[in-house]
């Protein structure tokens, strides 16, 4: 811990009631720390509140073998670019935690750890009042930087599984040894689902994988990491207002790929050839039997098509710029499924565990400020909400594709810091509703989600 962090904690020991700051940042992950760095640079008196420890989400909600899927060089937090020796590598979970801890130590944010915000409202004096586990403090302006994936979502269909089957969400998965012996059903083929399925598969576990509609992307193409090509092509800088279908863009699932072992493709067809059982979307559970839809072939074909379309874009970029890059043959499917729906008897297959890789939702009920749409998501433009003085940071597609990533949060934080330093402005007109539900965010009737606080 840096000396300045220690000073902040020491000077605000005990009850926070009566404390006032020009700005308060809620959340001590990469977004909150980036915000603090930018506010510090502008001389704004502020405080950062973190319900756990620095990098809490990375520390407590990632499995043991987790690593970034984007190269380390994209870690460009304000004033602290990636300091390691492997810019083309992929930091592991523990390395990410260390990176963020060293970032905090580099400038000493006024950070209080183990302080949860349970309510945010406006008091009678027009100030923001933050009720916390250590009392109530006030602020002129507030930045909510609590991350986009707060509440693990598990479908109600999970209630129909036998009690003998262990069920966990991807947020609670740590390693193959943490699950009871036997086969494992992994539900969902976003980044978490595919990587956890691979983790179990490499450990020799029998894996059944219920696929979804998430696309995939090649790790490398024509001599470079695909992320390098996409960065040069401007994809991470493209703003959301350049799209006619902004809401649909935000709802797209991330492409699955991995940084494990130096980075490689995730080819579900190859896993199938090696013994992994692939299925369509999970559709029903009853009497110890799980049923899957007749969409496995379509799911695999669509994922491959997206990957090939990205390669098409790279080819066009290379040709248009007259770049020299090695030619590379296109991927050829190594396995194809039989058509038709499938069902699996859990006991007969020895399935003892289910890992739900079904995404996360937001819970903003602790925020008593009128900035949300009918779905409970904040209306904002570049993080500036319709309520003067309240901001959000770290949302997917907050402004660009890079907004929710290490590579884009710096620009978003600096934009908000300039607004905050100027003081609360009049209500902003929001040309579009930002923060649409995560691609797996469902209706309350379909899912179970615990009540959480920031």
Automatic annotation (TrEMBL):
It comes from the Bacteria. Keywords: Oxidoreductase. InterPro entries: Auxin_biosynth/cation_transpt, CHP04046_FMN-dependent, FAD/NAD-bd_sf. The keyword Oxidoreductase applies. One of its GO terms (molecular function) is monooxygenase activity. Residues 435-454 are annotated as: Disordered. The keyword Kinase does not apply. This is Putative flavoprotein involved in K+ transport. It comes from Actinokineospora iranica.
């Amino acid at each position: 811990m840096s000396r300045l962090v220690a000073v902040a904690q020491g000077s605000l020991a005990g009850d926070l009631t009566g404390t006032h700051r020009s700005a308060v940042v809620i959340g001590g992950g990469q977004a909150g720390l980036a915000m603090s760095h930018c506010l510090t640079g502008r001389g704004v008196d502020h405080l950062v509140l973190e319900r756990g420890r620095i990098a809490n989400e990375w520390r407590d909600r990632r499995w043991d073998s987790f690593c970034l899927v984007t190269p380390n060089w994209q870690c460009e937090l304000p004033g602290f670019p990636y300091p390691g020796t492997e810019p083309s590598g992929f930091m592991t979970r523990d390395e990410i935690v260390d990176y963020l801890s060293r970032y905090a130590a580099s400038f000493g944010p006024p950070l209080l750890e183990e302080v949860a915000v349970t309510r945010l409202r406006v008091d009678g004096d027009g100030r923001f009042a933050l009720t916390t586990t250590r009392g109530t403090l006030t602020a002129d302006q507030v930045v909510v930087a609590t991350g986009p994936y707060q509440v693990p979502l598990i479908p109600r269909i999970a209630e129909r599984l036998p009690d003998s089957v262990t069920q966990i969400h991807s947020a609670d998965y740590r390693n193959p040894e943490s699950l009871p012996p036997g086969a494992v059903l992994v539900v969902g083929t976003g980044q978490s689902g595919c990587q956890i399925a691979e983790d179990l598969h490499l450990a020799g576990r029998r894996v059944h994988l219920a696929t979804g509609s998430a696309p995939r992307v090649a790790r490398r193409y024509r001599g470079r990491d695909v992320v390098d090509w996409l960065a040069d092509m401007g994809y991470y800088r493209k703003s959301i207002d350049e799209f006619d279908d902004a809401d649909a863009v935000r709802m797209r699932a991330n492409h699955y790929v991995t940084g494990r072992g130096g980075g490689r493709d995730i080819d579900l067809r190859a896993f199938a050839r090696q013994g992994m059982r692939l299925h369509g979307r999970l559709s029903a559970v009853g009497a110890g039997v799980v049923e899957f839809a007749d969409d496995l072939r379509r799911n695999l074909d669509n994922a491959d098509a997206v990957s090939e379309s990205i390669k098409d874009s790279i080819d066009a970029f290379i040709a248009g710029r007259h770049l020299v890059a090695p030619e590379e043959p296109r991927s050829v499917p190594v396995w194809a499924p039989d058509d038709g729906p499938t069902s699996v008897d859990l006991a007969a297959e020895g399935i003892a565990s289910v890992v739900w890789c079904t995404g996360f939702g937001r819970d903003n009920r602790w925020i008593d400020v009128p900035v949300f749409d009918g779905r409970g998501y904040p209306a904002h433009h570049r993080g500036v909400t319709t309520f003067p003085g309240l901001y959000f940071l770290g949302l997917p597609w907050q402004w660009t594709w890079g907004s929710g990533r290490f590579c884009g949060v710096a620009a978003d934080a600096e934009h908000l810091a300039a607004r905050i330093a100027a003081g609360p402005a009049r209500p902003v007109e929001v040309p579009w509703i930002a923060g649409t539900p995560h691609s797996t965010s469902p209706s309350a009737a379909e899912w179970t989600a615990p009540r959480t606080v920031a």
